[in-house]
Amino acid sequence: MTTIYKDIQDAFEAEVNAIASFVDFAGENTRYRPDLAVNWSRGTLLKGEPTEGSIGAGTQDRYAGIYQVDVFTLSGSTNTNAMLLTDKVISAFTKGKIISSGTTNITIERAWAETSIPGDTWVQSPILIRWFTFATV
Fold first, then answer.
1. What per-residue confidence (pLDDT) applies to 1?
2. pTM for this one?
3. What residues does 64 pair with on adjacent strands?
4. How far apart are CA 83 and CA 133, in angstroms?
5. Tens digit of each residue's pLDDT (9 = 90 or more) over 7-64
6. pLDDT tens-digit readout, 72-115
C-alpha cells in the first residue's frame, strides 16, 4: 500500500516541477533553505481513508486525498505576485486531468486556492488539489 502513495507523491511532484517558469520547489520531507530573495513552494500529500471501490476477489480500493502546494512569497511584496503563482498551479491541475507515476493513474477532481497566511518573512498561499485513484488490493 505504501507504494501507491509513493507513486502519487512522485506524480504530483513531477507535475509541479513541470510548470513553466514556476518557483523553486521543495518536495515533501526534503531539506530546503529558502533564499530570502526568491519565492518558493513546497508540496504535501494529505491522504484520505481508502474505501472499497468494488466487492469480490481481486477488487480495487479507491484512494483519495488532497495534495497541497504552498507558495511562499516575501512579506510586503504585492499580492498580485502570489495570485499569479497560485493561478499557475491551479491551471496545471484542471478538473479531470490524469497524472501518472509507475502504474498509478491519478485523476484530478478540483484545485483551488485557500486564504493566504501572512508571516514575518513569508506569505504562505495554499493551493489544494483534490485527487483519487483506484488500486487492486
1. 53
2. 0.91
3. 132
4. 29
5. 999 999 999 999 977 888 998 888 888 888 789 999 999 999 999 877 777 788 999 9
6. 999 887 777 889 999 999 999 999 999 999 999 999 999 999 99
- Distance (Å) of CA 75 to CA 59, 65, 123: 50, 30, 5
Quote the DSSP letter at residue 121.
Answer: S
- Return d(Cα 112, Cα 7) in angstroms, integer: 23
Residue type at position 38: V
What cell numbers appear for 90 in the block? 491551479
- Long-range contact pairs involving 18-26 (C-beta distance under 8 Å, separation at least 24): 18/92, 19/88, 19/89, 19/92, 22/85, 22/88, 22/89, 23/71, 23/85
Locus of grid cell 488539489: 129
Please count the other Cβ atoms lying within 10 Å of the Cβ belonging to residue 85: 23
CB of 128 closer than 8 Å to CB of 45 = no
CA dihedral 125, 41, 84, 46 (to 10 degrees): -60
C-alpha pair distances (Å), 134 with each of 60, 62, 117:
6, 5, 34
